[in-house]
Amino acid sequence: MNQDKLICSRNTEIITDTLESLGFVLNREKSVLKPCQQILFFGFILDSVEFKVYLTERKIQKILLKAKILLSEGVVVIRDLASFIGLIVNAFYAVFEAKLHFRDLERNKIKGLEGSMDFDKKVQLSDSSILELKWWHNNVETKHGKLIRPMPVHVICRTDASFLGYGGIDLSSEMHTNGRWTSEAINYLELLAIFYALQALYYDVNNTHIEIQSDNTTAVSYISEFGGMASSDMDVLAKSIWMWCIERNIHLSATHIPGKSNTADYYSRNFSSSTEWMLKMDIFERICLHFFRPDINLFASRLNKRVNKFVSWFPEPGASFTDAFSVSWQNMSPYVFPPFNIVGKVINKIIQDKVDECIIIFPFWCAQSWFTMILENMCSFPATKTPGPIDISPQQRGTSFREEASTHRSNSIREALQGRGLSGELADFIIKSWSTGTRKQYQHAWRHWGIWNDIRCSSAFQTSETVVLTYLFYLHKSGKSYSVINTHKAMLLCTLPFFGNSWCKNTDFIPRFMRSVFISKPPKPRYIAMWDVSIVLRFLESLGKNSDLSLKILTFKTVALVSLAIAPRAQTLISLCLNNMIVEKDAIVFMISDILKTTAHGDSFSVRIEHFRNESLCAMHTLLDYIEATKKVRLSNSLFISYVTFKKVTTSTIARWLKLTLSLAGIDTAVFKAHSFRGAATSAAFNRGCSLKPILKTANWKSDKNFRKFYYRQCLRKQDISFSNALFTL
C-alpha cells in the first residue's frame, strides 16, 4: 500500500518478481496486480479510502430475499433458517452490529431441532426472531461498511461488582460512581456494573472509544462478542449496552485485569448511606394529590427517587444531572427532600432561581434561620406530621381516615353490618352481591375518596351531600373522564348508606351534577372505527394446518376463531366447559352455567359454534383439533387451558392471547384491545348483510341499543373506494 499509485505499482512488480525468483507460481488471472482503491476479497469489498469492509450487492440481495421469504412464512423449515443464520455469520466482517441480531434466531433453531439433527422439520418463528429478521431486512443496505481498524482508545474505565453493589472509576479523571442493588448472579452483576458505570460517567460523551477493564472474564466476553448464548438475560443486557453506545457513536472494547489490580473493587463494597432516605410512596402520592405533581426529583439517587427524572449527588445511571446546585431550577417544578443541614442553602437557591412551585420536605424547626424564609415564600399552607404514632380507637374511626386509607372497602362494610347485629357470614354474603370486578373497581375509588378526606381532615364515613359534590367536582377539575367520575359516584351512593348516610337514598343535586359533567365532557367511544376482520382471518389462514401447529399457536388460533364466531366477552370464554359441551353434526353447543355480566334472573344462555366450509377458518373444526391436542395433558375441564401449566386460565390471559394475535396479524394493539373482537365480529357480520336478530342472539344482547351505541363501527381500511366507484361498479 502507498498513497502514490506509481510507487504502489513498482512495489507490486518487486514483490511478484521476488516471489517468482524464489520458485513460487503466481496465478495472475486471480491476482489484482494493478493498484486500486477497492478490491474484492473472499466475497467482501475492501475499501482502502474509507478503510472499511463492505458486502457485495449480490450478498445484500441474497440476505434481503431470504429475510423476506422467512418473514412471509412464519412457520419455516429449519434448514432455511440455518442457511439464513449462515449468511448473517458470514456478514460479521462487514456489518458492525451483526452480532447483536442473530442469537434469537439461533435459539429458535436450536429449540426447533429439540436435540435432533432433522433440519427438514418446521419451526414457528418467535417474536424476537421476527424482530431480528426485520432488522436485517430494513438495515442491511445501510448498516454494512465496518471499519477495518477501530479508533484508538481515548478513555479507560474500570468496573467491579459485588453482591452489595457496583463501582466504576474513570482512570483519567478519577471520577467514580457506585451504588447498591439487590443480589443476582455475579456474572450478570458484573455486566450490569459496566452498564451503570457507562451511564453514570459517560452520559454526555459521544464519538469516542472506551476501554472497559473488568476482573470478570464472562463480562469481558459478553462485551467483546456483543452478547452470548449461555445466558439469555446477559445477552439482552449486553445488547442494551451496545445499543446505548451505538446511539452515541461510542466504540467499546473490554479487557481482563487481575482482581487485585482492580481499583473499582473498593467502590463496589463501600457506600455512603447519609443521603439514602425517602418518603414512602403512598405518602408521596398523597402529598402530590394535595399540592401538584413535580417533574423532577432533586438530591436523589437511582434507589430513592420519587420522580422518574432526577438529579443525583454523584454520577448515577439514569440521572439527568449531577449536583443539583450546579444547574438552574428556574423552569423546574421540583420535589426536594434534602439533608437537613443544607435546607437553608436549598431555600436560597429556590429564591435565587425564581422557582414558581416546589415541594420541599423539611423539619419543623422554627428556631432555624431558614424557617422564616420558608414562611415568607410558601405559596400553600404546609402539610404537617405531628411526632408520635397516631392512635385512633374503633369508636373514633369515623372521625379520620388516616388508618383506614389502606383498609379494604369490603372490610369497612362488614364491620358496619356486624355493628348492626349481623353475623360475619351474613355480612360476607351481602357483600358478594357485587361482582369481583365491581368490588375491585370500587375499592380503587374508595381509596381515592379516603385519601382526599384524609388531606381535608374530614370523615370518609359520616359525610354529607355537599362534601360528596365537592369531591366529584374536584375529580372533574382534575381532568377525570365522565366514566371515572360516574364510577366514584356510584361507589359512594351504594357504600355510604352502610355508615348511616341516609341522604344517599334521596338526592337531587348529584344526578343534576352528573348531567353537567356529561354536557361539559361527554364520554368518547373507545373506537371511532374498527379493524378489518379479513386481515386477522388471512393471518390465521396463513398459519397452515392445525396438525402442524405448536400447542401455543393452536391455542391462539382457536381462541381468536371462537371469539370471532360467537363475539363473546372474555368472561364467557373462560366459562366454556367440556362437561357442558354438545357436539352436533354442524355445530358445537356450550351451555353456560356460570353467572355472567349479562345474566338476568331466570335466564339460560348457550353459545353455538357453527361449521364453516373453509376448514382452515372453521372455528368448530379448529376447536375439535384443539380439544384433541390437549386431551392427554389438560388438568382442567375448562375449555381453554394454559399451554404451559395446562390449568384453567383467567380472563386476563385470554385477553393477552387475543391482543398478541392482533399484533401478529398487524393490527395496532396500542389502539385496539382484546375486547375489540366483540365489536369487530358483530360489525363485520352486520356490514356483510347479516340481520340484527342473529347478531343480537349470538352476542346475547336483548336489544340493538348496546350494539349500535358501543360496538357497531365502520371498518378501518387502508384504502376506501370512492363514492363513484362504489356506486357505478357493476
UniProtKB/TrEMBL annotation:
Ranges that cross the membrane: none
Keywords (A to Z) from UniProt: DNA recombination, DNA-binding
Highest taxon, organism lineage: Eukaryota
SUPFAM superfamilies tied to this protein: DNA breaking-rejoining enzymes (SSF56349), DNA/RNA polymerases (SSF56672), lambda integrase-like, N-terminal domain (SSF47823)
Protein name (database record): Tyr recombinase domain-containing protein
Native source species: Mya arenaria
Organism lineage string: Eukaryota, Metazoa, Spiralia, Lophotrochozoa, Mollusca
